[in-house]
């Protein structure tokens, strides 16, 4: 399952909207303590099923290029 680490900021909402518009299922993580333990200092961060963490710019690029086959 794809996960979005978010605080509800404007960029977080944009990423979530882009995911939803592509029909990509995801869950959100809003617990800052969890994010700190993972070393996440800025949000949003997109975690792919492979465990890759993508910062906002890379996450938007991944969503834009998503074809359903990734």
- The 3D shape can be described as globular
Structural class: alpha+beta
Q: What is the number of beta strands?
A: 4
Spatial separation of the terminal alpha carbons: 12 Å
Spatially, the strands of the biggest sheet line up as 2-1-3-4
Mean pLDDT: 94
- H and E string: EHEHEEH
What does this structure look like?
The model has no long low-confidence stretch (mean pLDDT about 95). The protein has 3 helices and 4 strands. The radius of gyration is 11 Å and the shape is globular. With about 70 residues, it is of the alpha+beta class. About 40% of the residues lie in helices and about 20% in strands. The two termini are about 10 Å apart.
Report a brief summary of the structure.
This protein is an alpha+beta fold.
Keywords:
single chain; 70 residues; alpha+beta; 3 helices
Ordered list of secondary-structure elements with their pairings:
Elements lengths: L1 E4 L4 H12 L4 E4 L2 H6 L7 E3 L5 E3 H10 L5
Parallel strand pairs: 1-2
Antiparallel strand pairs: 1-3, 3-4
Helix pairs in contact: 1-3
